[in-house]
């Protein structure tokens, strides 16, 4: 009967091996996982960002690019509501440079910063280096412009909801694992989720992106 015991030992170690396999995070969540096959223990679902990072384009300059076209591409790809498109395209002052001008460098802008937003009075500004102007960078910066529309109470509420969901949402965990920039603070986290996850973010987060959804 030794062979039977051996067979049983082989079977048990096989089953232990199967259950001990590392699981891809997020199995079982719906609507946020891209997988080509039904999820089973044989084919764990793999996570992927709905909007992966676009490469910087060193050949793109103020002279040879169409800023309006990139803005339109962003509005379309992210399905920004029609009634809010004018706000994001024309209500915000947009500046594009081949290199940051001396006054911006003098006021502390890192020469390698791809883009930024700021506010003077009630007016929002968005500036970007031409080589970095793409849909993803626009999505990040426009998330900042959307965040600026939140009240102080809503910003505090976002911080608490965000710090909580960041520990449990598989796609957000995955995003910050491969690109931890969003962990800088809750405002950069807001912009990075808007950029890379966009419309696929959890329903509970969408209300913190006024005018974008
Ligand atoms: Zn930012």
Write up this protein:
The protein is mostly helical and 213 residues long. It has a domain at 67-206. It is built from nine helices and three strands. A three-stranded mixed β-sheet has the order 1-3-2, with helices on one face. Helix 5 packs across helix 8 and helix 6 packs across helix 8 (186-196). The longest helix is centred in the first third of the chain and has 18 residues, at 2-19. The site of zinc ion (ZN) has 4 residues, from helix 5 and helix 8.
Radius of gyration: 22 Å
State the secondary-structure class: mainly alpha
- Please provide the ordered H/E string of secondary-structure elements: HHHEHEEHHHHH
Distance between the termini: 68 Å
pLDDT < 50 runs, ≥5 residues: 10-35
The main sheet comes to: 3 strands, mixed
- Report strand order across the widest sheet: 1-3-2
**How many DSSP H or I helices?**
9
Identify the bound ligands: zinc ion
Shape: globular
Beta-strand share of residues: 5-15%
* Fraction of residues in helix: 40-55%
What would you say about this model in short?
By secondary structure, this protein is mainly alpha-helical. The chain is built from 9 helices and 3 strands.
Features:
213 residues, mainly alpha, three-stranded mixed β-sheet, 3 strands, 8% strand, binds zinc ion
Secondary structure layout plus pairing:
Blueprint: H1 2-19, H2 67-77, H3 82-91, E1 93-97, H4 102-106, E2 115-120, E3 123-129, H5 135-147, H6 152-165, H7 170-178, H8 186-196, H9 203-206
Bound molecules: zinc ion.
């Amino acid at each position: 009967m030794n062979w039977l015991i051996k067979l049983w030992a082989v079977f048990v170690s096989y089953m232990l091996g199967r259950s001990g396999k590392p699981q891809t995070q997020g199995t079982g969540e719906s609507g946020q996982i891209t997988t080509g096959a039904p999820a089973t223990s044989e084919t764990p679902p793999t996570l992927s960002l709905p909007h992966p990072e676009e490469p910087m384009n060193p050949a793109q300059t103020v002279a040879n690019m169409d800023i309006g076209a990139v803005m339109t591409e962003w509005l379309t790809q992210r399905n920004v509501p029609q009634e809010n498109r004018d706000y994001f395209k024309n209500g915000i002052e947009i500046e594009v440079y081949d290199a940051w001008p001396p006054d911006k460098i003098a006021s502390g802008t890192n020469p390698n910063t791809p883009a930024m937003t700021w506010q003077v009075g009630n007016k929002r500004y968005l500036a970007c280096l031409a080589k970095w102007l793409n849909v993803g960078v626009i999505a990040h910066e426009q998330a900042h412009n959307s965040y600026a529309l939140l009240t102080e109470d809503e910003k505090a509420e976002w911080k608490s909801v965000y710090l909580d969901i960041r520990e449990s949402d598989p796609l957000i965990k995955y995003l910050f694992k491969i690109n931890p920039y969003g962990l800088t603070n809750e405002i950069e986290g807001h912009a990075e989720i808007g950029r890379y996850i966009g419309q696929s973010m959890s329903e509970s987060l969408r209300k913190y992106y006024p005018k974008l959804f």
